[in-house]
Amino acid sequence: MRSRELTSQTDRKRILVTTAQWESALACVQSYGRRGHDVFLLDHDPRQPNARSKYCRGVVRSPPESNGAAYLENLIAVLRDGAYDLLVPISDAVVDTIAGHVEEIRRHVRVELAPAERVLSGQNKAKLAKFAPKHGIRIPESYFPDDLNQARSLADRIGYPCVAKLPMGTGSTGVQVVRSADTLVAFFEQRGAPDNWPFVQEFVGGDLYDVTAVCDRGNLVAHFAFRSPIESQVGGTPPYAFTVNDPALIEATRQVVRALDWHGAVDFDFLRDATGQYLLLELNPRFSGTINFACKMGVDLPGAYFDLAFDNLKQSYQRDYAEGILFRTIVPAEILYWNRARWVAGKEILRRSVQFPMRTNIYWSDTPLLLRKLRQAGWLIAHKWT
Asked: Cα separations (Å) of 276 from 26, 129, 138, 246, 279?
C-alpha cells in the first residue's frame, strides 16, 4: 500500500479548497500541504488570514459565495483553465451551488459529493426529520403543521420550551427556543414562508454531540466525534470542544450514513437525551469547522477525502485518544464568546486556559499563519473592546 507521504513527483496534485475563512479550509490546506501537494484557496477576499499559511500556494479570486450563479460560472472557468486534480467544497453555500452540477464539474476535476437529491434532502431539516424515523433513526419528537391555523392549534397543546425551526438554515440561523404559545405563533407568522415553512421539535437539553466524517457510498470511512458545551455556543465553530469515545454515538452515525447512502464529507449534530440515547438533530453536507481538532488528534479527515477521490482508501484512519481532551478555537471563536458576555466568558476562558490535556488552533510551526492569527486576535480584541 502506498505510503501517506509522496513517493514521487508524479504523486503531486494541484488542489483547490473553497471558503478561505473557515477553519476546515485551513485544516485541508495544512493536511495536503504537508503531503507535498500544491494547495490553493478559492475566495472573494485574498486577505483572509488562513491564506497566509506556509502551505497555501495562493488565493484564486471568485465572486462571493452568496452569488451562486456567478460563483458557479467562475468556478467552472477556474477548473477548466487551472488544471486542478481535486476540489474540496467547504461551506454549505458552495455545496448548494455545485450539487446540481457535479457531473459538469467532474469533467475538469475530482470532487466527492453525495447526489444532489441527497444533499438537498439532508440539508432540509424538515425532510430529514421525516426521513429519519422511517429508517429507525431517533430524533426529537417533531410536529409539522401545514398552515398557520394548525400552528396555532399546536401552540395551545404542545409542551414548553420547544424548538421552532426553519427547514433551510445554517447553524443556529432559523432555530429558536420557544417558551410560550404567543412566541411560537409569532415565529410562524413572521418567519414562515411557503418554501421554508417552519416545524417544531421537543426541547432536549444538554450539550451538542458532533460527528464529522468521510463516507464512501453509505460506508463510514473515517470519523471524529466531539462534544461542545451548549452554553458557550457562538454560532459556527464553537470555542470549546471535547473528544468523545462513545461507540453508541458512532453506531448511530453509521446508521444514518447507511440510510442516506451518503458519500463524501459530512457533519452530523446529535443531542443526548435523559436515557443516554443519541437523537439526530441535523446534517451538514461538508466537514465540520472543527476538523482541525481531529487532525491534531491524529485523525486526518482531509487525507481520507483525498484517498477516497484517488481510490486509495486505507484500512483505518482512526487513532486512540483519551475521552475529554479539550480543544480551544481561540481565534476568532473564543474572542467572540468573550465579547458576548465578558464577565461570565472571562471566567470560563481563565478556567479553560489551565485545563489539560488541551489543544488549540494556534499553529506554532506555521509561522506566517501564526503571525497573521495573532494580528487578527489583536484587532478583534481592540475592536470589540471599543
From this structure: 34, 20, 12, 11, 9
What's the CATH code of the domain at 91? Answer: 3.40.50.720
State the residue range of the domain holding 106.
Answer: 9-111
Residues 44, 106, single domain; the answer is: yes
Please give the backbone phi and psi of residue 176, each rounded to the nearest 5 degrees, phi first: -140, 130
The pLDDT of residue 384: 61
The answer to whether residues 147 and 107 belong to one domain is: no
The domain that contains 170 carries what CATH number?
3.30.1490.20
Percent of the chain with pLDDT over 90: 87
What's the number of domains the chain is made of?
Answer: 2
| HSE of 372, CA atoms in CB hemisphere, 13 A | 13
Tally the C-alpha atoms within 13 A of residue 287's C-alpha that lie toward its C-beta. 31
Q: Tell me the one-letter amino acid at 79.
A: L
User: What is the predicted pLDDT for the residue at 172?
Assistant: 64
One-letter amino acid of 128? L
Residues 6+ apart with CB under 8 A from 131: 121, 137, 259, 260
Q: What was the pLDDT predicted at 246?
A: 97
